Every structure is written in structure tokens, then in C-alpha cells.
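Internal tracking record. Fields below are filled automatically when a chain is submitted to the structure queue. Please do not edit lines marked as system-generated. If the sequence contains nonstandard residues, flag them in the REMARKS field before resubmitting.
Queue: standard
Priority: normal
Entity type: single polypeptide chain
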Amino acid sequence: MATVVLQYAGQAVGTFLGGSLGGVVGRAIGAVAGNYIDQALFGPGARKVEGPRLNDLRVMASTEGAPIPRLWGRMRVAGEVIWATHFEEVTATSTEKSSSKGGGGGSATKVTEYSYFANFAVALCEGEIDRIGRVWADGKDFDIGEATVRVYTGSETQNPDSLILAKEGAELTPAYRGVAYVVFERLPIGPFGNRLPQLTFEVFHSVGGAEDEVRAVNIIPGATEFGYDTEIVTREPEPGVTEPENAHVSAVSSDWSMSLDQLTATCRNLKGASLVVAWFGTDLRCGTCEVKPGVEVADKITDPESWIVNGIARADAYLVSSSGGSPAFGGTPSDASVIRAIQDLKARGLKTTFYPFILMDVPAGNGLVDPYGGTEQSVYPWRGRITSSMAPGLPGTPDGTVDCANEIADFVGSAAPENFTPAGMTVTYTGQPEWSYRRMVLHYAHLCALAGGVDTFLIGSELRGLTTLRGSADSFPFVDALVALAAEVKAILPGAEISYAADWSEYFGYHPADGSGDVYFHLDALWSSPDVDFIGIDNYMPLADWRDGRQHADALAGFRSIYDLAYLKSNIAGGEGYDWYYANALDREAQIRSPITDGAYGKHWIFRYKDLVGWWSNPHVARISGVEMPSPTNWMAQSKPIRFTEAGC
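SYSTEM-GENERATED OUTPUT FOLLOWS
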């Protein structure tokens, strides 16, 4: 108020004393004096402050007529901007107040900040690509998961982008068919100096090789507490500090999600996946072996999920052993992560197989009695070596007796289907306090049901040391236990196919190395069960016996190298395990090959583990002391398909 009054009073006085020039000077002096009085009485007036603001559009280079690159394999490309709108300006105004000295009215400052967002599209190369991997902005890693980004792989059927369509209209919006490009929608450009960053992209384009032939995969490691989770989990190594537990590629997507995205983009004909989930075995002697879920750290704090398996929390779980100062294994996947993984696989249209797995947590210096006669049990052995208190063929073995059946019964346990109850994202257990094989398998059958079901459920894998153990009267107690489990799991998961993943050296029969001439088709009770839908085989049959140099048997036979396709094909239904075998390690070293024949009955396929057709096409007749039994087993020739539940060589 004083500013206005004194401004005009000063003008009047100045005009009276000095004419028009005096009026201008008087008005200025009056305004200054009045402003001083106003600030003393009321505080300073409101100031306006504006932040940096763009006065023109700056985009990264775009060259008309530039060639569209063509690439194969994996390359890093920069691309060309093929479409962009004006930057979107967003203003944000705030008022900051401060009191004046002397108790005046204080001041108010209005601050206006400007933020800018960019809509643009970048052409990468000719399509059709598989996917893009990493992205760099101004040479630094850029997580596109934190932005709104759409990737077009460059197919001949891709549709126009929705944003470009909305901005330009249908008549002016191309689909850029045959061109791989990326659309960024409302990308904040403040972090890049209010300009489009210089972007480069890791582009993958397969050449139609092995990737297109892959139809199914096994997902491992099986021991990863949250590695299968679609949701990001963090850990708190110390108060106030968080680190990602399962998000090491993107800040907004878990490792599982990123990996499955890459897998399905690379293997475009993928139809199915096996989810491997592990519990831990503690001893090679089945009668004293516990099978239980484990964690790698006992006191880890995680958010938003805590680790729970079978209703057991982290603090009460088995702690895996250490090797070299670190956990020897990852922990068992949490029940919640397994459920979400199954649901995600199914949502991606993949047929899902559940594969329960035993990892033997037997560390160095374990001091455990070795059933194979060593000073102590071998370090982290294969689950296929679980056997009786002393292995068959060694002094003191219970093989072939009631004692062996009792040891197997202790391993299998007594857990029943009714002992399991779904509880949120886990399944709890209320049976006998045992960590048994049945508890593991039935837990996961119920968990798969809680997840909405699976296409296939395996009740075990590669337990050849157990399936070949005999009770009294030439019985196979563990095989009988698998038959019972198959029926129970079938009742829990009526829509799933059920089987057992036998080792390639196990599926076809058991020939005791005791000189008896006995031949057992020990798994036939399982393969012929009405609750088992196919013959499962983890197939790692040898595909080559190539040696260094040119003087070994296969080179002398005329094959050029281990990569000779004709050589590899000849070993699928031929070579080791079909035509011949090595009788001992010395024969293998010297390549002394013994032919595989059946001198007694001419049924050579009985002893050829590679002769899948012969085994599958014929009735199975066991032999005792080399003499065939009067009637065959319950196996019906060609009755069920064979499926390789794993494959390698």
C-alpha cells in the first residue's frame, strides 16, 4: 500500500519542482521509499522463480535414407529415430514462505519447475529378431523395465503401435513391418539433460539353428530360495540396508521373469518345461537318510516374502553345509515361489512338469560310514548312490533280506495324503515327525494342486541304488513304494500325467554283478501300473568314444572327428551300450570292446540299454540263475510311450 501511495506522491512533487523529468524521478524515489515501508510493515512481496526451461526441441540424430542394418547372432546397435513428438512439458509450482526479521509478515517465493517427457521410436535393424537384451543410455546401463517401452521384433504381421496411432491417426501410422523397432512412451528426459539420450541396444537374432529345435527344457538349479519367484524379494544384510535377493538384471523384474522372457524369445518353438525343486539327503545309507528342505542362511531377513516350505519357517529349517566358507547349495525354493513359478509357466502356454529332486548334502570330513567300503562317504555324491547300510556285493549287506526292506521303509516313511493341508501359499504337515521321501513327494503333489495343477508330475528320479535293492523273495521294496506313491499322487492330481524319471542305466532292468545270471525287469511293476502314464528316462547314454590323435578305433574306422554327424548318428542305436561294452577300466583305456550278445536265448536287446525299440517292443521275461521264468512280467509291449525327462551326453 505504501508503495502505491508514495509512488504517486513522489510523481506529483517531482512534477511541481522539475517538470516531467522531475515527475519520473519523483515517482521512482516514491516507489523505493514505499517498498521499504511495506517490507517493514508487511514483509517482502511474493517473488517468482523459474527453473530451467527448454526453448527449442533437441533430438538425437536421425538420418533420412540411412540403410537399415541386417544382423545375425548378437550385436550392439544404435538405431535411428524414426518417429518423435514434441517434448511434453509438465509444470509444477510450489510456494515457499519465510518470515522476515523483526516479526514482519515474511516473504513468499513461487517456484516453477519444468519436467519434460519424450515420445519416440527407434528403428534397430531388419526383422524378425528374437529379442533385445541390455540397453545403454549415454553409455550407461539403462533398465527399460523402469520405462514404458514396447519392442516390435519386425515380423511381417506386426500391427502399428498404439501411441503412434493415437498421435498420427490411422492413415499416417505405418506398422514398420519387417523392421525391428522400439517405442518409448513418456520417457523422462531430465536425467539426460532434457534431451534424448544416445541409446544403444543389445539385439539377438538367431540363425535358425538349435534354438528353433528346442521343445522342452529343465529349469535348474533346483536349490534357490527365491530364484523361481516372479516377485522381487530383497534381503536385509544389516539394519537399514536392502539388497536384491532375486533381481540382478532389472530393478523392476525378477531374475525368473527376465530369464523366462529371454528363453521364450530365443526358443520360439518351446512347448514345455520341467521345474526342478530340491530337498536335501543327509546320508547314503537309506535307513538313516533324512530328506528335508534346507536354507543357506539361518537368520536372513527377506521382504516382502519370508521363506517357508512345508509350513517350516527359516529359523526351524535344516541349514545346508558349507564349502570354502560359503553355503554348499542354495536353499530349497520357497513354497510361494514354486506356486508362482508354476502359474507363470502355465500362463506362458508351457506344459509344466514338476520334478522333485534330492541333493545329497554330505560334505567333506563327514565321518559317516561309507556303504561302499570307503573311509567315509564321498563328498556331495549323486542321489543314485543311496543304498542299504552296506551296498549289495559287500560283506554284511542286507540286500535280499527283510532287514533291507525295513531300511527302505525307514527312508520312505509313513506320511499320508491326509497329513497335508493347504495354508495360504504353503502346505502344512501334521503327520509323524519324520523327514521322509513320502513327505517330500506328497508335499509337492499338494503344492502343485494348490498352484492350479501341472501337466506332469514325477514321483522321483535316478534312484537306481534304491530301486535295485531286494527284499526277501526277490522283491523290490522301493519299487513297490513308488507304485503306491504313483496312485496317491494320481488321486491328488487327477489331471496330471504321472511317472518316474529312471536313470538311463536303470530303466531297462537289473543284472546283479554276482555271476548268478539273474535278469530282473525290476521297474516293470511301476511301468505297468495303471497310475503311471509313460516311461520316463533321464537319457545320458554315451554318444561317442572319441580319443585324441588318429590311431584310436573310431578314427581308424574312417570317421573324421567327434563332430562328424554320421559318427554321432551311428552311436544313437549303435556303438557303446548297443553293439559292445567295456568289461573293465583297463579295457576302456585300451579300447578292447566286447560284443553285447545273449548266448542263451538270442534276446540281445535285454543287455543293450540303447536298444529302446527292442525293450519297448517285446514282453519281458525275468531269469533266475540264467533260466527264464515260465511267464513274463506285467509289462505289455508297446503299451506306453517313452519320454526323455532329461537328455544329454
